[in-house]
C-alpha cells in the first residue's frame, strides 16, 4: 500500500491542500472524495455518525479512525479513546490533531477490550468480502467488555445496479453485490486496488446470528445507509 490516503490527509493537515482524492469502483465512475470532508467536525457529520457518537459509552476503540474526527469529538467529551488505522499518514494526522492514543494497527491485531467499538463511514468496508465477515465479527466480539457494543454503519448498494426502467442488472452468478473493487488516486498516482464491502442490514444481521452477536437497527440514513448496534 502506498498510503495515498494518508498522504492526502497529511497534505491537508499541513496546509498543502490543492486537490481531492479520486475514487472509483468496478461499478461506478470516478468521483471526488473532498479532503475537507475527511476533517469534518460534529456539525458536518451525517446523522448516523452523530447518533453513533451519542450512543458511545465507557472506553472506546475507533477502528479505521482516518483523521480522527470521531475520536477527537469523544475525547473532548471526556471518553477514553484508542484510535487505530492501518494508514501511517492517518495516525500521524490524528496525533497532530490531538488524539492522545493513536496507533498504526490492523483491527485483526487489536487485543485490548472496550465498552464501545466504533466503525464509521461504511464500517463494513474493512471486512472486504462477504466470506471474511464472520472472521472480523468474531474478532470484534472478542474485543468487547461485558455489555459492550459495536456501532457500525453501512449501506445497501442494490440501488447502484438499478437501470432506467427500474430493473436490476446484477449477475446472479457473481459474488455478493456489495463486494466492490475500490480504486483510489491522488495527485496523479494510483493506489493498489482494494476490496471494499457494503453490507445490507439483513445480511449483516444474518452474519451476526452465526457468530452469536445481537444486531439491532438503530437508524436508517437518508440514502440506503443505516447504523447498527451489535453486542
Ligand atoms: C472510509 S475511511 C474512514 C475514516 C474515518 N473513520 C472517517 O469517518 O473519516 C476507512 C479507514 O479505515 C482504515 N482501514 C482499512 N482497513 C483497516 C483495518 N483492517 N484495520 C484498521 N483500519 C483499517 C483505512 O486506512 C481508512 O483510514
Sheet with most strands: strand arrangement: 5-4-3-6-7-12-11
Total of domains: 1
Element order, helices and strands? HEEHEHEHEEHEEEEHEE
CATH superfamily (homologous) name: Vaccinia Virus protein VP39
Q: What does this protein look like?
A:
With 231 residues, this protein is of the alpha/beta class. It has one domain: Rossmann fold (3-Layer(aba) Sandwich). It contains 6 helices and 12 strands. The protein has a 7-stranded mixed β-sheet, with helices on both faces. Strands 1, 2, 8, 9 and 10 form a 5-stranded antiparallel β-sheet that branches. The structure holds S-adenosylmethionine. Residues 5, 38, 63-66, 69, 84-87, 90, 106-107, 120-121, 126 line the site of S-adenosylmethionine. S-adenosylmethionine binds at residues 5, 38, 63-66, 69, 84-87, 90, 106-107, 120-121, 126. It comes from Confluentibacter flavum. This is SAM-dependent methyltransferase.
Q: What's the helix and strand layout?
A:
Layout: H1 4-13, E1 21-25, E2 28-33, H2 47-55, E3 60-63, H3 69-76, E4 81-85, H4 88-96, E5 102-104, E6 114-119, H5 133-142, E7 144-155, E8 179-186, E9 189-190, E10 194-197, H6 201-211, E11 215-220, E12 225-230
Parallel strand pairs: 3-4, 3-6, 4-5, 6-7
Antiparallel strand pairs: 1-2, 1-8, 7-12, 8-9, 8-10, 11-12
Helix pairs in contact: 1-4, 5-6
This protein binds S-adenosylmethionine (SAM).
S-adenosylmethionine (SAM) binds at residues 5, 38, 63-66, 69, 84-87, 90, 106-107, 120-121, 126.
Short précis:
By secondary structure, the protein is an alpha/beta fold.
Amino acid at each position: 500500500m502506498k498510503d495515498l490516503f494518508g498522504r492526502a490527509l497529511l497534505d491537508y493537515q499541513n496546509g498543502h491542500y490543492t486537490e481531492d482524492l479520486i475514487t472509483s469502483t468496478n461499478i461506478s465512475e470516478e468521483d471526488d472524495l473532498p479532503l475537507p470532508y475527511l476533517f469534518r467536525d460534529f456539525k458536518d457529520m451525517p446523522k448516523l455518525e452523530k447518533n453513533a457518537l451519542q450512543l458511545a459509552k465507557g472506553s472506546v476503540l475507533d477502528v479505521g479512525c482516518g483523521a480522527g474526527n470521531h475520536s477527537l469529538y469523544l475525547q473532548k467529551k471526556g471518553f477514553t479513546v484508542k484510535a487505530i488505522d492501518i494508514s501511517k499518514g492517518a495516525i500521524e494526522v490524528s496525533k497532530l490533531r490531538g488524539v492522545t492514543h493513536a496507533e498504526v494497527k490492523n483491527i485483526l491485531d487489536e487485543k485490548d477490550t472496550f465498552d464501545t467499538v466504533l466503525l464509521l463511514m461504511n464500517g463494513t468496508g474493512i471486512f472486504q468480502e462477504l466470506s471474511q465477515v464472520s472472521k472480523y465479527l468474531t474478532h470484534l466480539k472478542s474485543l468487547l467488555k461485558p455489555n459492550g457494543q459495536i456501532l457500525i454503519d453501512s449501506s445497501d448498494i442494490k440501488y447502484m445496479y438499478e437501470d432506467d426502467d427500474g430493473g436490476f442488472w446484477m449477475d446472479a452468478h457473481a459474488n455478493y453485490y456489495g463486494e466492490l473493487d475500490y480504486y483510489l488516486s491522488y495527485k496523479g498516482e494510483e493506489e493498489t486496488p482494494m476490496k471494499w464491502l457494503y453490507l445490507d442490514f439483513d445480511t449483516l444481521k444474518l452474519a451476526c446470528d452465526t457468530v452469536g452477536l445481537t444486531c439491532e437497527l438503530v437508524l436508517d440514513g437518508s440514502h440506503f445507509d443505516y447504523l447498527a448496534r451489535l453486542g
